[in-house]
Amino acid sequence: MTRLRTNSRMAALFLSAAAVTISGCATTAEAQSTATQITPAEAKQGAEAHPQLLQEFGGAMTGTHAQYVEQVGKNIAVHSSLSNARDAFTVSLLNSAVNNAFAIPGGYIYTTRQLVGLMNNEAELAGVLGHEVGHVAARHSQRRQKAATRNSIIGLLGSVLTGAVLGNSQIGQTLAQGIQQGTQMLTLKFSRNQELEADRLGIQYLRSAGYDPRAMSTVLQSLANQNALDARLQGRNDARMPEWASTHPDPASRVRNAASLAGNASGVTNRDTFLTRIDGMTYGDDPAQGVIEGSQFIHPDLRLTFTAPNGFYMVNGTRAVSINGQSGQAQLTTAPYSGNLENYVRQVFAGLSQQQQIAPQTLQRTTVNGLPATYGTARVNSGNGQVDVVVFAYEFSNNQAFHFMTISQAGRSGVFSPMFNSMRRISANEAAQVIPRVIDVVTVGSRDTVQSLAARMAYTDAQEQRFRVLNGLSSNEGVVAGQKVKLVVRGR
């Protein structure tokens, strides 16, 4: 969560972005329609969307890490037949803690630093970027855009809230859109066939570039393992990444197919080069966007903190923090503030639905840890019965307010009361204590073990599991003296 910008243009991007993550083989018709070049119209479309996407996904990183990713991305992209010129492609490393990658028409390719940090060699990086190029070469985006024009944007969101709490009613879908606005999920998902086709094309590009084509299956396996670990740590039964948090469908279902496509072929992986080049890269939340530490969210620049309710987990998006659990969902974000908290809350409610007016039954003023606050509740009919929508706003200055928006079944909004009451300012000293985590590449010593190395990870829980997933190690696999491995440590 950066400065919690408002008035986003993501609805427009939703229809133009050729998103997603390494997550589907096409039919014969699809496979035969791969593009032979980047058209002027595609170049124009990409150029217009590019700066907006950068803004919405944490911004583009600069420096040696970004330069390396750009180099690998351009080298693999020229094998797609979209263009023989490396300069025809724009490859961006995004400052995001979500495991994601996507591409848009015009030769624009993106991956997050978090996903790069999960990789273990250059061939995996090339495979992920090649997969995204494959979406563009097969013109998957254009097919999804055509489908999107036949549906409403709200319907396409496929919100987790709609199914879990609100049912399939129009009001449920609209409220779900409102509570998720600003999170990193407004990019078109491809069909399974399209995802598998992009996997096939990515493997084809790996072979052409001399990389080990098996890298596609290994990076998918690492992603599946990370998703499963996240689910365990967050107390979820579903090992897939939540829909609102990432554009990945479940990568675990594609590992075997990618391995079959690669066969027994081999090639270079450039493991040590890759690890050396990503050494020192930020891992996890960037303090400039706020950080999640257990159940606590801290934003050192905005000087605020709050604690999620027991049994809930958080995801820090570019424009909002999402708080999710079995009994409800919530979001912390902001809106334009003119100095009147009651008007602020009413405006948030008014913006929830285009189909009907939603207003709080009552507004109540209070003070929370010294912060002036106002909150209101609206009871709304949904496909699964009535739900309570709460907006709880805090004044931090004459021109800055923040608010929680929550949705829960009627009569159960009290589950969020501890969170509402936990919001407070933090001191300058507290803000200064927020230090980023970074990747530290080390060489395994003769006395090192998985357990001794994992003990150096900058986490208080699941150190060994985190270390194994980060380094692509199975549950029984050990380390060998002289090999390079990744640790996540506190930066300086």
TrEMBL record:
Organism: Tsuneonella dongtanensis
Segments forming domain LysM: 440-487
Domain of life: Bacteria
Gene Ontology biological-process annotations: proteolysis involved in protein catabolic process
Sorted UniProt keywords: Hydrolase, Metal-binding, Metalloprotease, Protease, Signal, Zinc
Keyword match Transmembrane helix: no
Cofactor list: Zn(2+)
Annotated GO MF terms: metal ion binding; metalloendopeptidase activity
Gene Ontology CC: membrane
Protein name (Swiss-Prot/TrEMBL): TPR repeat-containing protein YfgC
Stretch forming the signal peptide: 1-31
PROSITE patterns linked to this entry: LYSM (PS51782), PROKAR_LIPOPROTEIN (PS51257)
CDD domains: M48C_Oma1-like (cd07324)
InterPro entries: LysM (IPR018392), Mito/Outer_Membr_Metalloprot (IPR051156), Peptidase_M48 (IPR001915)
